[in-house]
Amino acid sequence: MYDYREAVKNDVLEYINNEVDLEEWRGDRDGLEEKLNEDLWICDSVTGNASGSYYCNSYKAEEALMHNLDLLAEACEEFGGGCDVLKDGAEACDVTIRCYLLGECIAAALDEIEDDLEEVEE
Known about the structure:
Layout: H1 4-19, H2 29-40, H3 58-65, H4 69-79, H5 90-112, H6 114-117
Helix pairs in contact: 1-5, 2-5, 3-5, 4-5
């Protein structure tokens, strides 16, 4: 079974490793978390929301959705769209789940690198 939480968290960590200078954010976890939520909401390598597809492949999106329909239902309820997203296909459903889990996964990723964010005591 595809683990969306683990996958999105790993994508967030990869983004942080490649795109974020943690020195700039030392002691400001809340600020970094807010910035990541803004930036990654439309980052195709994390949510797929900019283009409407994370995989750019319907079959892969369908594979990820297997056994994760409960997450899709939660995401639809949270976003208030009901099942309208189903009309747009598997890729839209996949992106919806990724966006739904984004905040939770950013927090989990930052928990993993918390030591790198702590202020250096002099």
